[in-house]
Amino acid sequence: MSQELISNRAEPEKVLLVVIELKNEETLWTLPEEIAEMTELVAASGGKVVESVQCRLSKISAGNYIGDGKLQEIAGLVALHHIDTVIFNHDLKGSQQRNLEEVIKTKTIDRTQLILDIFARRATTNEGKMQVELAQLEYLLPRLTGKGIELSRLGGGIGTLGPGETKLEVDRRRISDRIARLKNTLKDVAQNRALTRKKRKDQGVPAISLVGYTNAGKSTLLNALTDAKQVTKDGLFTTLDSLSRKLTLPNHQKVVISDTVGFMHDLPHHLIESFHATLEVVTEADLLLHVIDVSNPNFRHLYQSVMDVLLSLNVLDKPMIVVLNKIDQIDHERSWLEQIVESYGNAVAISAKDKNNLDELYVKIVEKLSSLIIEINVNVPIHRMDLVNLAHEEGEVVSVKYYNKKINIRAFVPRHIAGKFET
Question: What is the dihedral of CA 95, 100, 106, 107, to 10 degrees?
Fold first, then answer.
């Protein structure tokens, strides 16, 4: 089923959520919190949650994950509410999926398929579409029975937006070949990015990367800092493709700042791998701005979930500023916010939407990148006005004094251009 046909449905798909808590699994997330986030994910995919079932399991049933009792309860709710799609918050094996559908009699998918469906809807660039297709195929491959599996299952809709032109009865060999081709193409993309980054590094231009939980306001912050005119709206994973813009700091230092895909707790590992080329803007950054939606009651858990992803990317050793965003949406006393700022150490509270307190954010960015700035106090020939202009354009000038045969320049300039003043 095409994306256009899915988006033109007269009514949203009716979804039943099955939210499972495993007793031996450590998690910061309560069942109500899981249901709330899964409901947002369903909305992002064009569906509507009309019923939910909570399960606390001591062990997973090999056949249908949840056991026969809960399965019959779900089947009854599906029939009663005319459910289109049942969505589990845990990953299902292919055999479990088929066994569930035999009893439930409607399409059954898991959280990973739901996220992949949203990504397929959000991808706009060729690179983004390739990354989504790769993630979908790597999810599908271990679930094949050997004789093939229909990708457009049980009438289409959420979770069935197939990878590219690959449709029905795709076997392992063809999928493996397609995965290999996609990886090679994305490898070429990564190499081109590497050349661009090398050129930037040779020019001494620092890179800043915006990271954060999905819907934290990273794109809004990019717009506030650079007038990037990135399309923003309230919802999960509204930005999928990375976007980079040039930014001049108050001390005239030039930087490149990049936005990229938002993170989420328990983000599927193969999804991170598929988006490796995009996420290299994070691994290669000189500074991370970790954006948090401080108006979300669960913001501490969101922060930790992002830190877990950053740990998997091996970037926790990078300089980081915690940006507590959306202060325009909180009702707490100012003292509460001050305590939150202090608890995160190097943090700043802002509203990217209202451009409130961006000056303090700029100050912190300049402080973090100060090691890339050097103070000069030089005398240059009287005819070298080009060096005076360079100091003004690329640095922060303290003083310029003119004498008969020389000009004295005191300024803070990027370390990589300091040698140009040695005449």
Answer: -40
**Taking CA 314 as the corner, what is the angle to CA 310 and CA 318, rounded to the nearest 5 degrees?**
80
Question: Could you give phi then psi for residue 401, rounded to 5 degrees?
Answer: -120, 130
Among 95, 284, 310, residue whose Cα is nearest residue 193:
284
Would you say 265 and 236 are in contact if contact means Cβ atoms under 8 Å apart? no
How many CA atoms are closer than 13 Å to the CA of 254, on its beta-carbon side? 15
For strands 47-57 and 13-22, give the pairing. parallel
Question: For the chain, where do the domains classified as CATH 3.40.50.11060 start and end?
Answer: 3-120
Of all residues in the chain, what percent carry a pLDDT higher than 70?
A: 86
Q: Does the model's pTM come out above 0.85?
A: no
CATH code given to domain 3-120: 3.40.50.11060
In contact, 154 and 168? CB cutoff 8 Å: no
Residue tagged 């949840």 (tokens): 66
**Nearest partner of 225 among 109, 315, 321, 317, judged by Cα:** 321
Answer yes or no: are the C-beta atoms of 133 and 164 closer than 8 Å.
Answer: yes
Fold of 205-368: Rossmann fold (3.40.50)
For the segment 167-175, the average pLDDT, to the nearest whole number, is: 64
Torsion angle defined by CA atoms of residues 226, 281, 125 and 37, in that order, rounded to the nearest 10 degrees: -90
- Every domain of the chain with CATH number 3.40.50.300 lies at 205-368
DSSP type of residue 358: H
Q: Is 47 left (phi over 0), alpha (psi -120 to 50) or beta?
A: beta
Which residues fall within 8 angstroms of residue 204, CB to CB, at 6 or more apart? Answer: 372, 414, 415, 416, 417
142 three-state secondary structure: helix
Residue 108 has pLDDT above 80, yes or no: yes
- What span, in angstroms and rounded, lies between the C-alpha atoms of 128 and 123? 5
